[in-house]
Amino acid sequence: MGWVVRAPFVGRDEGHEAITRAACEGLALDDWQQEALIRGVRAPDVSLAGLLVSALPFAQPRHALRAWSGTSSTDAVGRVRGFLTATHLRAIGLPEGQRRWRALGEVLHCLQDSFSPAHVDRVDGEIVRMKHWGPLDRLRRGADGDEHGFPSDPRDSAWRDDALTDEALAAAEASRAYLEIAVRSRPELDEFLDEYLGG
Hints:
By secondary structure, the protein is mainly alpha-helical.
């Protein structure tokens, strides 16, 4: 779920990976840091642990989605903020190394998903509606429903005409702003989340 990821038998397009690379441009990160970020940003969609829990309601905030179809968008944004804060604090509490940067990549995954049109509706950059992902949404809302498609959604493509979409570029900008905070390990996360998530 979320921006596409490159995976055998699934697709050749990059989504999260390309957004993360765009965010890293000019940040003077070492190659190993960028590689760990890429592994972390892919993990929620392609790791065994990510795949095993991705359909469970408690895992939906990890993908910037409502846990239940009846969950309000306001509550969902609050849960996403909680996930981002907890994962950020866990990451910066780790010693410098691969594990820290993979955890920071998991933060990026959720943050980037919060810009995908399949996951949220934004007006003037602010989330006004967070969507739900589940097999029953199509039955309840019909084929034209606006919830996240199941199991995948074409609106999760980060590309249009061989260029990143406006939403993917906004995700890259937010990812870069987050990485600038994470690199310094500074406690500016609340202000950052107010700007990019609201709520």
